[in-house]
Amino acid sequence: MEVTVAEDQLIDLRKKLEIFFDGNEKHHEFCPVRDIMDRFGDKWSLLAILNLGNSGKIRFNELKGKIEGISQRMLTVTLRSLERDGLITRTIYAEVPPRVEYELTQLGKGLLQQIMELAQWASNSMDEIMKARMDYDSKLQ
Amino acid sequence: MEVTVAEDQLIDLRKKLEIFFDGNEKHHEFCPVRDIMDRFGDKWSLLAILNLGNSGKIRFNELKGKIEGISQRMLTVTLRSLERDGLITRTIYAEVPPRVEYELTQLGKGLLQQIMELAQWASNSMDEIMKARMDYDSKLQ
DNA sequence: CCGAATCCTAGATGATACTG
DNA sequence: CAGTATCATCTAGGATTCGG
Fold first, then answer.
1. For the stretch A10-31, what's the b/e string if a residue is b when 16 or more beta carbons lie within 10 angstroms of its beta carbon?
2. Which CATH class is domain A31-138?
3. C or N: which end of chain B has fewer Cβ atoms within 10 Å?
């Protein structure tokens, strides 16, 4: 499969890039792209968002069951971080034993959509990437 | 700013999700999304791709100059990894002193486009995220 | 049930020195 | 110029234990 990018499309890309990245050594202070990448560049945030999008309201341990291999600690840490950024809500019910439900906010759903776009690209490009890796590795003897 | 997601849109999202993520405990072996995330979840890949997209063909040290704070070692590591995945090409010129030029492949340009979409969302959502963070932090006393 | 606190390790990154 | 090699550091994440 070939991805084609026309020259004028690239020029447009470059124009957009200047919004976020500035080669002229100015305002490196803050980059929203970097910030978002850090947000789900970690090990679990992405999976948490995907599962929350798939489930609507969901309880802590129910979510834990859906995310293969995550520890209790990391689920807590991940959810706190997502909550802090306003991507999910956390609702505590005053019951015994306690019940806590998580749900994507509108903002979180927006991010989920972006992730889905990326996922689509990833899925479409996977074969090409895997082939490139095999080619590369085979050339190292 | 409000992001609105219609119910049918969400249903569509869920359908897409099932391509990559399966709550029913099957084929966890390989997730292309996870793989792509790992690709630029590291510290420098994203910046490298952005700068390569901005520059066309570019030499090692020239690129190093554009990426604020990157070490020689990490630029090498990052570029090797991108090359392995077929996202960039590496061209060596048999000269003294040596000259090596890097450039995005079509595949790499495709990824760049995806990143730009994400960047656009990130940029648009930044204010809302920052506000959520301040609200959250202020409630911890 | 949900989570906080603690301790610990692997892997990612940085600093530095050396080379074709 | 464009790397490699080595060593030091730093942090995300896992295991475990305790508590409301």
1. beebbebbeebbeeeeeeeeeb
2. mainly alpha
3. C
